Amino acid sequence: MNLPFRIFRFLLKKETEIITAHFTGLGINLSAEDFWKNFTRLAFFSIFKPVKGPTIIEDCYILSYHTPLLPSLVKWTKNLNTKLTIVVRAPRNVFLELLYHLLEVVYPVNICYRFNISRIQAASKCVFFIDQDTRAKGEFVPFFGIEAKTPVTVFRLAVEMNKPLFFLSYSVRENYVQINLEEIKATSPQQMANTFNLLLESAIKTDLCSWCWFHKRWRSRRDKIFNHEEYIHFFSSRSWLQ
Predict the structure, then answer these.
(1) How far apart are CA 114 and CA 9, in angstroms?
(2) Crossing angle for the helix pair 228-236 and 3-25, to the nearest 10 degrees
(3) Residue 156 φ/ψ, nearest 5 degrees
(4) Domain boundaries in the chain?
(5) Cα(23)–Cα(184) distance, integer angstroms
(6) b vs e for 60-74, b when ≥16 Cβ sit within 10 Å of the residue's Cβ?
(7) How far apart are CA 35 and CA 42, in angstroms?
(8) What is the pLDDT of residues 94-150, one digit of tens each?
(9) Secondary structure of the chain in the HEC alphabet?
(10) Whole-prediction pTM value?
(11) How far apart are the C-alpha atoms of 151 and 133, rounded to whole Å?
């Protein structure tokens, strides 16, 4: 077995462990195997099916989440005949860097590596993908009933720049993907983070396989950070309910 394949098998095993722990701990009746099958199905559906969505106002921030339906987002920008700035993490490998470059060539998008404040401030419409429990500054906000360290920089920036905020979600219809926008009308960064998590919960419950479960969303606690083994035990044992 060659080294790249062994690394892939190792990463897949770790991600499957996290997904299984999440589903067990949250009382979700879905196996990791069924998750992967449906996750892949959604990815191919998003690539090959058309997308429909609303128009958007000229000056705003849009918040979304990592999902196999992401190809629909860039297709939607082409339908809008407008240019979006998509804020992503800096690419960790050459493949991602080439992929981002290709997106900029094919679709009307600008890729901005987080967190380039000057480029974000200059853009009229920005799309941010928010993950709980990243290395970014955050506050503990409930997510599925458990406190999750949720980034608040984008919410503080929205208040500072007086930008309307919208939550973007996806609905899979029979032959197309529907993009939905819902305004976040909270006034403080803490309230915005709380509203975002509630809207994300609702989107995930609509289709459990439309969200990337394999990130450790609840790794940081107020008093410590769990390592991998502690994290798996924490969720699979449902000890967080105690």
Answers:
(1) 29
(2) 30
(3) -65, -40
(4) 15-237
(5) 28
(6) bbbbbbebbbbbbbb
(7) 11
(8) 777 888 888 888 888 888 887 677 778 788 889 999 999 987 788 999 999 999 999
(9) CCHHHHHHHHHHHHHHHHHHHHHHHCCCCCCHHHHHHHHHHHHHHHHHCCEECCCCCCCEEEEECCCCCCHHHHHHHHHHCCCEEEEECCCCCHHHHHHHHHHHHHCCEEEEECCCHHHHHHCCEEEEECCCCCCCCEEEEEECCEEEEEECHHHHHHHHHCCCEEEEEEEECCCCEEEEEEEECCCCHHHHHHHHHHHHHHHHHHCHHHCCCCCCCCCECCCCECCHHHHHHHHHCCHHHC
(10) 0.91
(11) 7
Contact 133, 197 (CB under 8 A): no
Q: Work out the angle at residue 69's Cα, subtended by the Cα atoms of residues 66 and 71, and round it to the nearest 5 degrees.
A: 100
pLDDT the model gives residue 119 = 79
Predicted local confidence at residue 8, as pLDDT: 75
167, 181 contact by CB (below 8 A): yes
Please tell me the distance from the alpha carbon of residue 136 to that of residue 94, in angstroms, as a whole number: 23
Residue found by looking up tokens 């897949």 in the block: 12
Q: Please enumerate in sequence order all residues whose Cβ is within 8 A of that of 141, keeping only pairs 6 or more positions apart, or say none.
A: 147, 148, 150, 190, 193, 194, 197
Instruction: Give residues with Cβ within 8 angstroms of 82, minimum separation 6.
Output: 56, 108, 125
Q: How far is CA 167 from the centre of its chain?
A: 11
Give strand pairing partners of 168. 181
